[in-house]
Each structure stands twice: as structure tokens, then as C-alpha cells.
Design a protein that fits this description.
7 strands; 2 domains; alpha+beta
């Protein structure tokens, strides 16, 4: 049956209407250019897309397949439409058919998607949204171009080879553009992100946004005496206090690190920790360093290792071009969050006003 080819072609319609390039795995669009062998003759009674094909149904089963399972206001959904949408969902998500015990949940999800789309289309028609002929032609020309068809006849032949007809493709594309327009009117145009919204997000998530920025620092480490318990820690603190006093008196931090630091790996380099990215050090140590301004020194700080004195040499901050990029990213994040929330609320609203009769 030709209708079983529609899910595969619907992917191409979605991509074309969104203005994106066509993936190679989409039927028709992924074929290499150049001469190809003549296709095998189709079966005498039907033409179907191979990925979504199923055995031909007995003549008396068509009425069962097409029975109405849901009525949305005055718009009917058939069992066949649900089967087709389920097949498309599996195809689009590259999934195998689920076990029977999981299939009911999948079909419920797919049916809810059908209901949502049907409600949106009904709303678009109610608000007298239209798609101009010129735009339809532009979209169809784009699909034809992506399929590699150079003439209208070639285009229609390729559509026919997938078990579709030209008018059916136009209808699917028209419905898709109608839904896009109603969503734009009812959702996208009602979402705004203010500078105050961005400031609040930036302040609440600054540490996360600054992850990966670099800083340079030094430290002087004083280790507690092994086996001395709390007395060992008190001794390390006293040594740290003494050296801190000399730092505050103006002695060179690097010289004091070389003389007193018990971190052999950094003492010889004046206590330099090197260029670090935020997130590389233990969180408590990094926080103690980054609360400093460049050139500032910390009071003795106790970590799991011992007592430290820190000096911050430099640190990158969200400023200039980096800040502008971060604000643009935040604007996109907040817009998407608000858009998704508004879309969800709108769908709940139009569904609450609809008369939906389930006949499954």
C-alpha cells in the first residue's frame, strides 16, 4: 500500500520546511548522483517504501485498519493513522519495535502527538491562517532540488516511486506550514527575554559559566606533623601565621615560598601552581583562591592537606567579548525555556477546550 511510505518521506518534508540540509539516510535524498541500474519492477498490486513495508493485508481487513479510534472535536483519527505514526516514530528514532508489554505506552505517546498536531491545525484554521501559493511553490521547489530532480515530471516520478502522489505531498507540507504559523503566533511571538532576566541567570550561575576560564596562583604549604594529631595541625597553623605576617609586611611571596613551603614540587618555582582552568583544583581550595583579587594574599587556609597561603597572580573573568558571548548563550537558553513552557501551556489550554472522544 502506498500509504506505508509516508513516514520516510515525511522526514524529508520536515527538513525541507525547516530550511535544513537533508541527511543521507533519508530515502530518496541519500542516493548518490550518477547513472543507476534500472529499478526492479514493482509488485503487481502495491508499491511501498522498503523500510516501512509490511505484508499486504487481506481484502477484508481494510475496514478494521481504518476504524475510528479517536474523535477530536469533529475530526476523526483512524487506527491506520496510529499504525502509520507509530511506524514513523520508530523509523525517525531508529528504534526496533518494542516488546508487546511496552507497546501500549508507546502507542499512547504517539496518539497524544497526533492529537496535539490535530488540535494545532484546527486552531490555525480557526484563526484563518493561510499559506500562500507562492510559498508552497518555493518549498516544493526546495524539496525537488534536494531530491536532485531537474524537472517537475522527474519530481513526481520520484514521489510516485515512494508510494505517494504529488497532491498528498502538497497537503502534508501545507499542514506542516500551517502548524508552524500558529505556533509562531501563539507561542514564539509571545516569548521575550529581558536584560534583567539575563542578569539574574548570570548572577545565579556565574561559577558554572566561568568553568574553563584560567587563573594563575602561588601557594605556600605547611603540613601537619604525621601522627601528632591536632597538635600537629596547630603547629602547622603557627608556622603559617608567622610566614603570613612576613607576607603582609611586604616580603616577596615567591622567596618565602622557596624557603618555607613544604610542597617540594612548587617550592622551587616560588610556589607557582601554573596556569589552571577553573574546576581543576579541589573546590574549597579553588574558591579560596578565586575570592582574591590579582596581587592579593589569603590568610592561612586549612585544607585536607594542611595550611596554605595563597597569592592570586591573575584570573580570567567574564568580560568583554567573553561576557557578550555568555549573555547571548544565556538569552538562547532562557528563550528556549520560556518557549517550551509557553508551548506546553498553550497545548494544555487548547486541549482543555476540545472535545476528545477515545474509542480504543
Amino acid at each position: 500500500m502506498r500509504r506505508w511510505a509516508r513516514p520516510a518521506f515525511a522526514v524529508l518534508l520536515t527538513v525541507a520546511a525547516a530550511g535544513c540540509s537533508v541527511p543521507a539516510w533519508v530515502p530518496l535524498a541519500g542516493k548518490a548522483k550518477g547513472p543507476e541500474p534500472a529499478p526492479a519492477p514493482p509488485p503487481p498490486t502495491e508499491s511501498r517504501a522498503p523500510i516501512l513495508s509490511r505484508p499486504a493485508l487481506p481484502p477484508d481487513s481494510e475496514a478494521v485498519v481504518d476504524r475510528v479510534i479517536c474523535v477530536i472535536n469533529s475530526d476523526a483519527v483512524t487506527l491506520y493513522e496510529l499504525d502509520e505514526a507509530e511506524a514513523f516514530y520508530l523509523y525517525e528514532n531508529k528504534m526496533q519495535p518494542p516488546p508487546e508489554e511496552e507497546r501500549a505506552a508507546l502507542r499512547e505517546k504517539v496518539l497524544n502527538g497526533i492529537i496535539e498536531k490535530r488540535l494545532q491545525l484546527q486552531q490555525a484554521e480557526k484563526e484563518k491562517i493561510v499559506v500562500e501559493d507562492a510559498e508552497m511553490k518555493e518549498q516544493l521547489d526546495e524539496i525537488q532540488k534536494k531530491l536532485g530532480a531537474t524537472t517537475q515530471a522527474q519530481f513526481e516520478e520520484q514521489i510516485k516511486a515512494q508510494g505517494l502522489n504529488y497532491e498528498g505531498v502538497k497537503k502534508r507540507l501545507y499542514d506542516q506550514l500551517m502548524v508552524q504559523r500558529i505556533i509562531r503566533r501563539r507561542v514564539a511571538l509571545r516569548v521575550t527575554v529581558t536584560e534583567e532576566d539575563i542578569d539574574q541567570y548570570l548572577n545565579a550561575n556565574r561559577e558554572k559559566l566561568e568553568t574553563g576560564l584560567t587563573f594563575e596562583a602561588r601557594h605556600i604549604l605547611f603540613l601537619p606533623q604525621a601522627g601528632a594529631g591536632e597538635d600537629g595541625w596547630q603547629s602547622a597553623r603557627r608556622r603559617a601565621d608567622d610566614v603570613y605576617g612576613r607576607v603582609m609586611a611586604g616580603e616577596d611571596f615567591g622567596d618565602l615560598a622557596a624557603e618555607f613551603s613544604e610542597d617540594a614540587a612548587t617550592a622551587k618555582n616560588g610556589g607557582r601552581l601554573g596556569i589552571l582552568k577553573r574546576g581543576e583544583l579541589a573546590a574549597d581550595i579553588e574558591k579560596a583562591i578565586l575570592r582574591l583579587s590579582p596581587g592579593e594574599h589569603s590568610a592561612p587556609f586549612r585544607s585536607e592537606v594542611g595550611y596554605h597561603l595563597f597569592e592570586l597572580d591573575s584570573k580570567e573573568t567574564l568580560a568583554g567579548e567573553q561576557l557578550a558571548q555568555a549573555r547571548n548563550q544565556i538569552r538562547d537558553i532562557l528563550y528556549r525555556q520560556k518557549y517550551d513552557l509557553r508551548l506546553k501551556e498553550w497545548l494544555v489550554e487548547i486541549r482543555s477546550k476540545a472535545i476528545i472522544e477515545m474509542r480504543l
